[in-house]
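Q: Hi! Curious about what Mrp8p looks like structurally. Here's the sequence.
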Amino acid sequence: MSNIEDINKKIQELEGLIEKQSKVIATTGQKLLEIQVKDVKSRMTELDSGSNKPHSFDAADYVGNDDIVQLVTELQSQLDNLEDRATRRTYNSTLTKDEQKLAPLSNKDGDEPQFTLPSTLKEFKDMTKDKVLELGIFYEIILPNEEEINEVLERDTGNSKNDIINLAKNKDISKLEDQFSDEQVDEVYDELARYFGIRHRKVSDGW
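A: Let's find out. The predicted structure is below.
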């Protein structure tokens, strides 16, 4: 398959993914309203049947317009981030020359890195060990190990989720270098290449 055919195929796959996600967002508000209507009908049926069970109405039990707008906005934001990353990956997958510019990507949360990213394919290929590890942490390829997570849970600060997230973000790169062999760093590199859509690999055979 030629590069042009390969690119066209990836664009078609991207368009299909975007269409699918758009349908999910479009039906979310409708489903929420359907659930509310069903609940109201159920309560009305109980009243019509002469049930003596006291009924109270609490507006907080129902999703309002503002809630739906907020939910749809959040979903749309996630879709926009997904679409943006997919577009950039598609572009990066076409890079074949070292001097070609690399499209930067946000992480899975839509956050932009606060440090310098490789700007060309060559810079990406030539990343040092500490740079690979830095990107590996930011793009959540390197996660806290079981021992680190257990330590956070044992402290029981009441905010374990954020503590675990911060644990990953605040890892000391210099200490991390001693924990990773060259082969392990190359494996992290390959995962980063997949995330960026870059076809170059160091240890993986093919994909």
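A: A fun detail: The two ends are 16 Å apart (CA to CA).
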